[in-house]
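Data availability (excerpt). The following record was deposited with the supplementary files.
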Amino acid sequence: MPRTHEDLRRLCLSLEGRGYKAYKSLQGVYAFPDFTLIIDHVQGDPFASPTRVRVQVPARVAAFPAELWEHPSRRVGAEHYLMEVFHQHIQPYRKPRGTGHSGQILMEPVGQAMIPRTAVRLGPHGVEARFVVGLPAAGRRILGRLAAQLLTQDLPQVVRASLFYQAVDPEAIARYAATAEDADFLRNRLEALGLVAFVADGSLLPRRSGVDDRPLETGIPFESPPSLRVEVHLPNAGVVTGMGIPQGVTLIVGGGFHGKSTLLRAIERGIYNHKPGDGRERVVAHPLTVKIRAEDGRSVVGVDISAFINNLPLGQETTWFTTENASGSTSQAANIMEALEMGARVLLIDEDTAATNFMIRDRRMQALIAKDKEPITPYIDRARQLFTERGVSTVLVLGGSGDYLDVADTVIAMEAYRPRDVTQQARDVAARFPTGRVQEAEGAVPLPARVPDPRSLHPGKGRKAVVVKAHGPHALQLGNRTVDLSAVAQLVETAQTRAIGLALVYAWERYMDGRRTLAEIWRLVERDLQTHGLEVLCRTPYPTGDLAAFRGLEWAAGLNRLRGIRMLKRG
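Predicted structure:
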């Protein structure tokens, strides 16, 4: 039988003044009157990673209605809400009360995106919360009385205020669930509607700053141009109208500071559902949408970039391109081909973060530098081919190159954050002012199929067989190497990056055999994640609360940027 909360209180009191390692005796299961506390792992000293704990509230006590968790989308929304409420109630316990992490109660941060996480799990069993606490100490001496208060008084108050249905706002949690369900429904309808993205009327797209993802309250509500307006019927919100971005090649044009990049960033984040009040609740994009940019200095291994770059001086191979220090153009070509390798269906490009010579070579430059002296086939000459041959759409922000009007299916002009459909005007302009440039693409766009060499991954460091650490959303430590993910724009939470690191190790241990391609390996990992959840990645005997869902596109991006990784040619 588990020990009781009274046993826990007495044990904490008995440890008063002892050395910190005596806290190890707390590990175990404790029954409270209305929930169970599980202390999975006790920190070794007050400065170490805090103690990992779980709280389980049984269904008969938690009493959350089945309509909140039976549908996967609704469950994710409800879990997001419960994380937010839990965070509100641990605010008084975020500051240390003693040495190091003493007295703290902390849960993995939660942002604007409602994505599957392991911090809170809601279902027929009830609700489980996973978080950490800092066991109190003065120096390295146990503060037993404070520990007893923390674990048997403070923590129960937080649990009863945030994990019981009777304690939360029923309308608010239902709204989160409904918002998530509607967004997933809408995203799943895009293909049938012939769209790659949808931006609902009334959406608020601008953010407060580059580091604050909350909505800019003074922003201008979005209003679709009539010619691109689409009407959809959602399960909860009913009839919703908004701008549909069709499949094919779409340009977003306009003057500087008029909202072109803001619209593209909203589409970029449309792969995620957003919480009520975010402003992007009904902005959705195809789930295999990926942002592409130039990435000077990144390593590239075994990527066929010949569709874009060929006949390099000195005979450097581009069907199996490898470099430790890619240029802007070679990195952008590699980023596109790696995305295609993982099944990308929509490419988002902003000219501000693209390599100019990769995007366009105008008629004058074609006349000055003959094609046989220019290794780059610009993107303008592949964009339509990617769609007609591979079904891959492009959404491109442009302000300075009108040559792209010749290959565009749809042209949207942003004026003071308001969109206009100028497709017909763009066609008229293209007809009146022909560029005279020569189409330079030759041959098909290959589909990469690379095989990672498992001998080159090595996630160990020193005596540790596996080291995985996330330093924010855009830096991943794997063994003794650090992966720079700063150009992987669609990672939004540290918990995702941590999960990607663990998934790379998981794949290395189980599925990297020197024969399977990167895409084949991912399909096996994805199958396990769908079957067993994110918990399958945990390398501990207990589940942790610090993981969040991610896509194969970002998983592969992590592996592709791991310096020292090697790729093998299939067959």
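Summary of structural features: The first strand starts at residue 3 and ends at 4.
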